[in-house]
Amino acid sequence: MPPVVHHDPARRFAAWAIGPWMLLLVAALGFVQYLRHGEYAYLAASLLVIVACAGCILRQAWARAVLQLLAVLLAAWALLSGVLMLQQAGDFDIARQHAQAQPQLGEVALWMIARAERVWQVGLALKAVAIPLLLWLAWTLGRPAVRAQFRPRPH
Questions:
Q1: Is 60 helix (H, G, I), strand (E, B) or coil?
Q2: Pair 25, 31: CB distance under 8 Å
Q3: What angle do CA 67, 48, 21 make, to 5 degrees?
Q4: What percentage of the chain exceeds 90 in pLDDT?
Q5: What is the pLDDT of residues 45-81, one digit of tens each?
Q6: Which long-range contacts (CB under 8 A, 24 or more apart) does 75-84 make?
């Protein structure tokens, strides 16, 4: 006879819980990249996000407020950096014109410019998707029904 499994109602599936897992994965990827390139301020920030996400996944009360704040800050950073990226939109056309004016650069230069533009477009699209998702996560973490799913710190 299989054992009876009792489910804790506080641990039932919650859509908001996907957010910390996704953010954890992105932050871990960023951590590896920042470590590789020696970008220590970003490395520290990604470590903070990793710790807050892990705390939320474990439903620790302290982590909920921290991740809520970090989600808002990350959304603001994505918005600001997205606006700065948009200001560079015309740079690809200028680069193409320069490459075409110098035939010795050949097709390789045009290929590199096209590749850089695709990376820029993907980055911009990811920011456009991330901003509302991060804001939704911050809002959701503040809802009473979600707050109730976190364990308070023992005294």
A1: strand
A2: no
A3: 55
A4: 80
A5: 999 999 999 999 999 999 999 999 999 999 999 999 9
A6: 75/130, 75/131, 75/134, 75/135, 75/138, 78/127, 78/130, 78/131, 78/134, 79/127, 79/131, 81/127, 82/124, 82/127, 82/128, 82/131
Do 96 and 47 form a contact (C-beta atoms < 8 A)? no
What is the rounded distance in angstroms from the CA atom of residue 145 to the CA atom of residue 147? Answer: 6
Q: 150 Cβ partners below 8 Å, 6+ apart?
A: 56, 59, 60, 61, 63, 64
Q: Is the pLDDT of residue 138 over 90?
A: yes
**Residue 149 CB burial class (10 angstroms; 0-12, 13-18, ≥19):** buried
How far apart CA 19 and CA 26 sit, in angstroms, is 11
**Amino acid letter, 153:** R
Residue indicated by tokens 């991060």: 134
How far apart (Å, rounded) are the C-alpha atoms in residues 67 and 51?
9
CA Rg value for the chain: 21
